[in-house]
Amino acid sequence: MNLQLANLESLKKIVLKVLKFLAFFTLGAFIFWLIYRDQDIERIKSVLKNDVNYLWVVVSLFVGLLSHISRTMRWGLMIEPIGHKPRFTNTFMAVMVGYLMNMAFPRMGEISRCGVLARYEKISFTKLIGTVVAERLVDMISLLILLGVVILAQFGKVLNFVKQNPEIEEKLTTLLSSPYLIIGIIILVILFIIFRKTFKHTAFFKKIIEILNNFKEGFISIRSIKRKGWFYFHSVFIWTMYYIMLYSIFFAFDFTSNLNPIAGLTTFVMASFGMVAPVQGGIGAWHFMAIEALSLYGVANENGIIFAFVAHGSMTAMIIVIGTISMLALPFMNRRNDIIEERTK
Questions:
Q1: Which among 267, 261, 257, 255 is positioned nearest to 303, based on CA atoms?
Q2: Which of 128, 232, 248, 292 sits CB 3.0–4.6 Å from 60 for a disulfide?
């Protein structure tokens, strides 16, 4: 009876994972379809064939590879305080497998890369999860800092964009002054005050507390890193490379080659928030955010769509290729390493 219940519970988890995958994939595909449904496919093919300087795409991919190498080295620094020094090849391939897994299941990459490294380097999976939590905390802070820079640097341009599009200004004004919004906020505040004790026992509240505790543990683990200088260097280098990776694509097209670095930073930050969306590889959401960002600088929608397709498509292709190679190479490389170690004993 217990075995049947266990099998039923296992089957339930599998079904939920499949449904979750399908839901996220459908959402991303739907957004992607909305963006590209009315586009002139022949024009897109023509631009891709004749008007793209693919040398800059290659430069972008090379810079992206440097960011992945730097992330690997930073993760190695974060693992050292827990008493391990994993091989660079295994750590790099684990990172790339993680990126690949995110293409299938959002947020699965963190678990996957920890599982890979735990298996091949004999490191505690739980401790590795702690390092990834800390790493994600640093990434979140980095992205928020960049967002602050963009807001300060481009606040005037955003205001001008709103003023030049009266329908947007009207919608924002209507929304903010809506009596339904005000009444809704008041009701939520009253309900929170009345049911605050009950709220503390809900799964949602417990999840928030868990996230805050993870952040706390993340800060503590960062403090124990021995080579902090290199850690800070890689943290800055990773995001600098991410930015240059996208900005390089600007020079691949005539309609974006004249835009300044701040325009590239704005597009990068907005598109990065598209990656945060719970869809596989940011598909659809990333495209939408990049297109909207480029529109602030006068890039026509039909051109922004092609830019987003090339930029997102190239980095996705790199992750699929390197991630797949890493997944296939890991067992072979480690079997070979084990044989060499046995012979040297």
A1: 255
A2: 248
